[in-house]
Write a structure and sequence with these properties.
By secondary structure, the chain is α/β, with parallel strands linked by helices. It contains 14 helices and eight strands. Strand 6, helix 12 and strand 7 form a beta-alpha-beta unit. Bound molecules: adenosine-5'-diphosphate and magnesium ion. This is Primosomal protein DnaI.
């Protein structure tokens, strides 16, 4: 680009102007895209028009089309980064119109996809989990079942239903969080936004912070996100405040608003109930625990995942 337009500018001030101009003109007119354009518009174009439009044609020839000369978006050589030119007739001129290029299109789609998956304290590899690269094993029928139900979930959600989430439980390292990540990605492909929250860290942060507006905003976001995934419930330390005010409020809201909610836990429902019954201070509050359990059961179908530990 630089090279050609500079040559064009320098040209007019040189004595051999005519020769050089004709050379460049020939190069431009021999360009296969330009030739194709001139042929397909031959009835609208005359040589006067071509000469009047020569600067535009230079500009066209020297830019990358379909990303063929740009290694990446940030190294895009075009005048408008992320856009490539197309020839068009505008009035009595041949002009350029700029369209978004394939690389930028992919890049924008990826950004949009990422922006649909919110997360708090979730490792990056989990956020990249996909159904199609989940490693399946015929000896793990529960994983096959969970994944098949997860696909059904996404499909029903897309059809406008608001199906129940899962209470996904099983031992450490077998891929519960990974499956939640894959569901979040699948939802994002369908433009549904979701949020994955690692519960122990979320609760720790809530406990450590003052009741400020950023905290309120976080809580609001968790309450209202279209699809919520509460990861590793049961691994947090229980306080009445966290259980009743935080978890209770979030679940109550989601139940009333019919917002799908998933959980993962090392505990089955009975063990979770036990865990939630005893606060850190040793108070036994079975009724309050039962109230939370009611909400979880209302929101989810319980699914046990059995399989090998996939951690290193
Ligand atoms: P859990 O939540 O049950 O403790 P994770 O989902 O964190 O387990 O999985 C443990 C590790 O194994 C993670 O690093 C994850 O990326 C990997 N992993 C889990 N399930 C799969 C799978 N089906 N295919 C490939 N890698 C997996
Ligand atoms: Mg996990």
């Amino acid at each position: 680009m630089e090279h050609m337009s500079k040559s064009f500018k320098n040209l007019t001030s040189r004595p051999d102007f005519n020769d050089r101009y004709n050379d460049l003109r020939k190069q431009v007119l021999n360009h296969p895209d330009v030739q194709a354009f001139l042929t397909s518009h031959s009835h609208e174009i005359d040589s006067g028009m071509i000469d009047r439009s020569m600067v535009k044609l230079f500009e066209y020839v020297n830019q990358s089309k379909n990303c063929e000369q740009c290694p990446s978006l940030s190294q895009c050589k075009n005048l408008l980064q992320g856009y490539h030119p197309r020839l068009a007739i505008v009035g009595k001129m041949i002009d350029l119109q700029y369209d978004i290029c394939p690389t930028k299109k992919t890049h924008d789609e990826m950004k949009k996809h990422q922006s649909l998956i919110k997360s708090m304290y979730i490792p990056k590899d989990i956020l990249e989990a996909q159904f199609h690269n989940i490693d399946l094993d015929v000896n793990e029928p529960s994983r096959l079942k969970v994944i098949s139900l997860a696909q059904d979930f996404v499909e029903s959600y897309n059809n406008g239903e608001r199906p129940k989430g899962f209470y996904l439980y099983g031992s450490f390292g077998i891929g519960k969080t990974y499956i939640l990540g894959a569901i979040a990605n699948e939802l994002a492909t369908h433009s549904v936004s979701s949020m994955l929250v690692y519960v122990p860290e979320f609760m720790r942060e809530l406990k450590g912070s003052f009741q400020d507006s950023s905290l309120d905003n976080k809580l609001e976001a968790v309450k209202k996100i279209p699809v919520l995934m509460l990861d590793d419930l049961g691994a947090e330390s229980v306080s009445s405040w966290m259980r009743d005010e935080i978890l209770g409020t979030i679940l109550q809201y989601r139940m009333l608003e019919n917002l799908p909610t998933f959980f993962s836990s090392n505990f089955n429902l009975k063990e979770l109930q036990h865990h939630l019954s005893t606060s850190q201070r040793g108070e036994e509050e079975p009724v309050k625990a039962a109230r939370i359990m009611e909400r979880i059961k209302h929101l989810t179908i319980p699914l046990e995942l059995v399989g090998k530990n996939r951690r290193g």
